[in-house]
């Protein structure tokens, strides 16, 4: 089906390119790499798939990430029933895993808790944002996500995608960082067990270890506050 559609649109035989050498190399990436700069200015390339949305869970992600975004080539998704998938496929961010957060809670403390969890997630975070709250959203997320991570706002959609937190295979979060996050959640009114659950979602540290830390550090402070 893909080959037939390509021929019907282009009315010319497909350009011959070599077979990808490994799973990280897509045919689309090989094709664009064979084009000179002048060619790229005068052609439109369609990335199509026989099943599913191109760019999500297939080699098309390599095409968008490694070439189009790096060389400032516009990527225009053909919208389907889901704004989330359309935005993700053209974002240039990782599509292997993602968290769809939806709209943030209206309550300030609940919103802070959600942003804290999302900021520690290693996968792409996707939010729906009302147009009139866009400035507020950007201001609040900058506190938790910082300035080093990429944020993508597709044209015509208030669907914002934020790059996941880079994870190191050898470095676990510092104990002080986990203690701070637990303390923030407890201070905002969460029980110790709920604070542990929320923090565990955004880290590779085992929940059992986080709970032990919570009892040793945060639980001690909580009991002192209750007795005073």
TrEMBL record:
Residues 37-141 form the Tetrapyrrole methylase domain. One of its GO terms (biological process) is methylation. The keyword rRNA processing applies. InterPro entries: 4pyrrol_Mease, 4pyrrol_Methylase_sf, 4pyrrole_Mease_sub1, 4pyrrole_Mease_sub2, rRNA_ssu_MeTfrase_I. Gene3D superfamilies: Cobalt-precorrin-4 Transmethylase, Domain 1, Methyltransferase, Cobalt-precorrin-4 Transmethylase, Domain 2. It holds the Pfam family TP_methylase. Keywords: Cytoplasm, Methyltransferase, rRNA processing, S-adenosyl-L-methionine, Transferase. One of its GO terms (molecular function) is methyltransferase activity. This is Tetrapyrrole methylase domain-containing protein.
